[in-house]
């Protein structure tokens, strides 16, 4: 599931949310409670947390993970480890100087320098992200206090958010907030037929960390590689792509094609291709393609709108990114905007004007 942005945000809610203590919940309105939940608590300098993370499609559980995180806010160090029910393992650590990430699906570990605080890829702080998310929630949902509940030994306030409109993209949200430190102890998020459940099972505030805490033991035989060494992409041509897929492939002749690359996605057992286009000296969009999977077109947990493009069902997204996705003639296509001035109508027009290239 790509950009499981909403999923990651829910994880972030639990991993980073802490606010000032209150004497009692009943003295605040639901809106004030949500606002209080994003205030900084200067007394929290670090924590250890263990969580269960489950995703359901209808009644079927499709994701089942256990996540552990160690956070040292004073020294800007963080480590996380997760394991799915299928045994898939992911580990990452930021020791303040370098970042190491390992995934059993990839089989390799990548190392990179820690980004500077003013680096453009850092973005907003977790607090700012959370404040933005919760403020948006208040605009689109009616928030009510359900009551006091105990969750895994934690005394919590239970808050429920119901969409104000029946056709709201974000469904029902529920949060159980610790009375002691304002961490989100449990959350349930519903969108269409997907349900995400996040539950804290262990939480230690301001633990004592040693130098071994922010290290990871990589499996035997795993080699550390740089980002450049991990890049699986190789240059290609449209004719080669058409030959590889055994059928014509879509491209744009109204924009300048500046690069075409292909790479093998081991975790999905497929070869993906990307075409990058420019116009008037500026990047405009990236067209990604791969052989369509057997299951129905899906984009995970993105906020989405179903439309029709090129005579077939398509999904338009404009949450974190602006993207247009559709399946056509056995291929899956994704049109990702790189120009903030492009509109939804522009992307649709670009897609409608794509042409097939033969091998």
TrEMBL record:
Transmembrane segments: none
Keywords: Lipoprotein, Signal
Cytoplasm is among the record's keywords: no
Superkingdom classification of source: Bacteria
PROSITE patterns per record: PROKAR_LIPOPROTEIN (PS51257)
Pfam family, one: LolA_like
Sequence ranges assigned to domain Uncharacterized protein TP-0789 in this UniProt record: 117-202
Record PANTHER family: SPORULATION PROTEIN YDCC (PTHR37507:SF2)
Record-given protein name: Outer membrane lipoprotein carrier protein LolA
